Amino acid sequence: MPSAAERTRTLVQSTCSAVLIIPGLDGALPHQLMPDLRSVGPDGEVFLVFAADSPAVRAATHAQDDELNAVLEITDVAPVSVPHRIRGRAWLSGWLTREPEQAAMEPGRTLLRLEVGEACVDDLWGADQVEPEDFASAAADPLVEHEAELLQHLHTAHSAEVQSLRGLLGERGESTTAGTAAVPVAIDRFGLRVRFTGVQCFDARFDFPEPVRDVNELRYAMHTLFDAAAG
Q1: Where is the DUF2470 domain (predicted)?
Q2: Cβ-based burial of 111 (10 A; exposed 0-12, middle 13-18, buried ≥19)
């Protein structure tokens, strides 16, 4: 399974919604504290792009050499229609500063830097603390950029095959009631998670024979799963 640091890094580098929480900053609307872009630097710092007139930029500019505490909260929502769509959240807390003006920065945008002091994640795998050095050295899942479209494709074009995976659950699969829907709710390099919904609602994890490195390897892994279910 992915480590807590990898899961956190994946959420940060995904397209999940994020909001920057700055204690003491009153009057700002939630959308004003949502970065336009975010990325992770080589030392694990998180770079956030905001409109130059955003409350976050004003706060970081006003703080100057003082430490400005901030928390980046990321909310992960399943890209398919399924009960309990929030798949997880991650929090990265640390110190916010304004980066020096850069010629490459788009006019009207300002780059802020969050030096991570601590982090935690609470997702489908469980709740875990993450050390800053582990976050810095972790890599995001290689499928993160394609996960949403992959899940939507599986749900719309391969719903029968996904439903057939119930046959790999043994007695648990046999005990599910008729009409139980099977929705692919998460996918990563290690496997596929399916949410079975109906009278019962539960998640089942289907691991790949070995971790995949890209979408091409994923196709082979998915065919292997479907063939096992059909056989």
Answers
A1: 148-222
A2: buried
Q: Where are the domains of the chain?
A: 4-137, 147-230
Q: What is the pLDDT of residues 104-131, one digit of tens each?
A: 577 889 999 999 999 999 999 999 999 9
Confidence of residue 177 (pLDDT cuts 50, 70, 90): low
Q: Does domain 4-137 correspond to CATH entry 2.30.110.10? A: yes
Residue 178 binned pLDDT confidence (cut-offs 50, 70, 90): low
